[in-house]
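thread: overnight batch results

M.L. [08:02]
morning all. the overnight job finished for the chain we discussed friday. pasting input first so we're all looking at the same thing
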Amino acid sequence: MVKRFARREIIERLKKTHAESRPILVACCGAGIIAKCAALAGADIIMTACTSKSRLMGLPTSILGNVNEDMIKLLPELTNVVKDTPIIASLEATDPRWMDLSQLIQEVATVGYSGVLNYPTLSPLLGHERRRVRDSVGLGFEREVEMMRVARKKDLFTIAYTFNTEDAKRMAEGGVDCLVAHVGSTKGGLAGFQSISLAEGAELVQEIIRAAKSIDPQIICLGHGGPFATPEDTQFLYQHTDAVGFVGASSIERIPIEKAVREAVVQFKSISLPRKKSG
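M.L. [08:03]
and the structure it wrote out:
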């Protein structure tokens, strides 16, 4: 039977990590082997995402597939090898095929997810015409906020991506448990994106966190993306912001794999064959 963690249980788990002066780590895992290793190494939360498939295909991070259906189908692969770590689902709240958010949340809870994330999100499109159009037909960012409210009522842990201060406040007002200051697609590796500097990233993270905490001082705040790609980068994040943890996506399931496989192949190829004796 799949173990589903209660919302309060996850919150206490994260508070304990913070009380021990250790950073909270949410590890994005789109395959069983990655989730298994992340859990064994101490990740606080395992998270699914619709961008995992592109990373595992060796491509730049991209949204692929039917998000909500794919997340539901992925869970058994992860729970087959992860037993004692909460697993949360990234869900597309604005998918018109799921107009009843209560039904969507009930579906992911029934299969065994312990929480939800609003991803894909319209947050990066603040002020853009596309977002205004989506808002006008009831399929805008407010749907993402509403999904958080519905999930919380069903005792699921809620974690929200926000790219700006306005959306951070709206999510905090909606009562999310954990807010992630997202500063863009992750740099580095073979398929990374161009990014702002660490200092610029930290400044934006802090602005977003400050906005969220102006509404809810107790909200758990993490950082993600942009220039923050390595453990060394997160040290800068913690030194210059109030973030108490990190969400690793490319940083967990793309960049380490690129490095490990290449190094292994180089090492295997570096072994010389013994010379065979003549005669």
